[in-house]
């Protein structure tokens, strides 16, 4: 517990400093690094030492993240860079599968697909944080608030009222009451966020949008948590990594955020004028 508190006490202020005070490129650099580490963690979880056959894939994840996140202001043709990253990654993956096929140390299809999924989906999730940061330093906090407050509400509601299990085969500690509490916590967190930014930053998203973001944040946050838990159950691992002592790896800490950030980005772009 002491180690967890120390890491959180150092990590959270650093995260806030980068997101709120540093230039957009600093957020992009941080997210590119997290994308690369997350890509490695997923490939290692699925394929153990097979990930070494795709050792360049984390670089493609960072490339994909910056191509999506920085957009036309930094990258002349972001769509072209994204397509190039995907094409090179696919060619690289199947070239390694062909070259190593039949050898004692070969690239399995599941590890190949894990690498391609991580390179695209995980990188895209982190890239959405860069896009939200480009909109506003305040807006980039919303995926963290939605996911964290959902987890907090679920924890306390589950401890107080939790009896019926939600998904016992995937996450034995999650309950239906905790799930409902997660929605309440996320909505409450977004309501407080709205009051603060409306007063201090003159940013008014509207109560309708805030309520919707609270619901969506909890829905996708819990889905993200359960989705990455399924992978851990499938391959018999407790944590994806140990880069954050006492907390696990990048995917252990950002699993919910990776689902919430794209959902919020779509809401803001589709529903706000």
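^ Assign residues to that structure.
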């Amino acid at each position: 517990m002491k180690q967890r508190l120390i890491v959180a006490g150092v990590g959270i202020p650093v995260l806030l400093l980068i997101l709120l005070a540093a230039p957009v490129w600093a957020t992009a650099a941080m997210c590119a690094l997290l994308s690369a580490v997350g890509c490695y963690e997923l490939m290692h979880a699925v394929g153990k030492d097979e990930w070494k056959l795709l050792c360049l894939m984390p670089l493609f994840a960072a490339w994909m993240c910056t191509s999506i996140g920085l957009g036309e202001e930094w990258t002349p043709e972001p769509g072209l860079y994204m397509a190039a990253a995907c094409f090179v990654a696919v060619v690289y993956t199947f070239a390694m599968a062909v070259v190593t096929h039949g050898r004692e140390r070969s690239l399995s299809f599941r590890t190949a697909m894990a690498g391609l999924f991580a390179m695209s989906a995980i990188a895209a999730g982190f890239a959405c944080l860069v896009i939200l940061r480009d909109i506003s330093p305040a807006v980039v906090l919303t995926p963290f608030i939605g996911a964290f407050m959902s987890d907090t509400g679920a924890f306390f509601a589950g401890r107080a009222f939790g009896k019926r299990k939600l998904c016992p085969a995937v996450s034995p500690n999650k309950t239906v009451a905790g799930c409902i509490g997660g929605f309440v916590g996320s909505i409450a967190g977004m309501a407080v966020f709205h009051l603060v930014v409306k007063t201090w930053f003159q940013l008014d998203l509207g109560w309708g949008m805030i309520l919707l973001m609270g619901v969506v944040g909890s829905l996708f946050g819990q889905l993200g948590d359960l989705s990455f838990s399924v992978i851990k159950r499938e391959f018999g691992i407790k944590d994806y990594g140990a880069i954050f002592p006492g907390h696990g790896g990048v995917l252990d800490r950002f699993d919910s955020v990776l689902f919430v950030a794209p959902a919020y980005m779509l809401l803001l772009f589709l529903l706000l004028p």
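The first helix runs from residue 2 to 20.
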